[in-house]
Amino acid sequence: MKTKHEDRLSSVEEALYGREPMPPQVTSDENLATYLREAMHYYTYAVSSGQKKQWFLDYVDNTKESDAISHIDDSFFAVAGALARIWCLGTRVPKHGIKLQEYRLKFLKEGMEIEKQKQEKKKLADLAKEKAKLAETNDLLSKVDIIIDDIISGKVKEVDVPLFFKTNKVSEENQKNIKEKFKSLYAELSSSGEEMVEAYAYLGKTKKKIVSFLNNLVNGLLVEVKSPRTIRPRKPRKKRAVNPDKVVAKLQYCLSTKIGKTEIKSIDPRKVLGSKEVWVYNTKYRSLAKLVAKDGGFTIKGTTIHNFDEDQSMTKKLRKPDEVVHEVVNGGKVYLRKVMDSLTTKPAKTTGRMNKEAIILRVT
């Protein structure tokens, strides 16, 4: 739901620029030229760069490519986004199609380069963190060595190990590293074997103090060291319920058409949302599309049906549309399972894009 501020802003924009131009119902060279001129003027002044970028990503309609192109700055989509919007609304000017493909390849190349640079920066940052972590560990190990030297020289008589960990803010990981590092030295000094006793005889009375220190260091419990600032995890936000009318508002489709002697009416597009299977017939190209949804069912964005399984979905041209369309609308589940296999025309991949020639025959 729009806020009062957004409604007010929308009203101001509408007063200044009018409503978004829509493709003409009757196409002629003059009507088309007028529409293109008005549309480009409207998109230049009334639509944000971010929105035009989103339109271009909707046109691309490929998750992998969209992820790469999304790295491009919004300002570069001024013309590309406007052309993509016009194209997706159903006005397919050939020179626009060529230009859009040029933009697509250009943005994809630049986006992949930016993505690569970001990954390299992340690797360098991770490497720097590892180096800093190693330096911190080595620094703590050196401090323990100094304590042992001070015990031998008599500067230190007794060491409070938990206090040492807390004072130096030693992490749990580094406490384990310290314990592991000095475990073998503690085993040697505390050994009663003749060879070990003789090897460390030079320590004299300080040997007992060192063994006591190392015992606390190696066998003592880990000390909890709290960070100065504890960051509480944020509770996940609840997803807003999306208004189906708003989702399908920009979807173009054929309301009704006559196939043979039968009048066929389109299914309400709101029923597509969350459904498992959709059948769409293109009246212009006489093609039948079967879309099979992935987990979660179909979603709609702009003029395209999303979240369908590309391997199970397909499009085939119909030689006898009046017979097949009638059966798809009225036939049972068994017929629907076999209809695509019964068609002898060559299958093609479906894009999920809708237009004014596409009628929604059935939703299951």
Give your account of this protein's structure.
With 364 residues, the chain is an alpha+beta fold. 52% of the residues lie in helices and 10% in strands. The chain has 13 helices and eight strands. It has helices at 4-17, 29-46, 49-60, 63-69, 78-88, 94-153, 161-167, 172-189, 194-199, 206-219, 244-247, 321-330, 333-342; strands at 256-259, 262-265, 277-282, 287-292, 299-301, 304-306, 314-317, 358-363. A four-stranded antiparallel β-sheet has the order 7-4-3-8, with helices on one face. It has a two-stranded antiparallel ribbon with strand order 1-2. It has a two-stranded antiparallel ribbon with strand order 5-6. Helix 8 runs antiparallel to helix 10 (206-219). The chain is elongated and about 110 Å long. The chain starts with a helix and ends with a strand.
Layout of helices and strands:
Blueprint: H1 4-17, H2 29-46, H3 49-60, H4 63-69, H5 78-88, H6 94-153, H7 161-167, H8 172-189, H9 194-199, H10 206-219, H11 244-247, E1 256-259, E2 262-265, E3 277-282, E4 287-292, E5 299-301, E6 304-306, E7 314-317, H12 321-330, H13 333-342, E8 358-363
Antiparallel strand pairs: 1-2, 3-4, 3-8, 4-7, 5-6
Helix pairs in contact: 2-5, 3-5, 4-6, 5-6, 6-8, 8-10
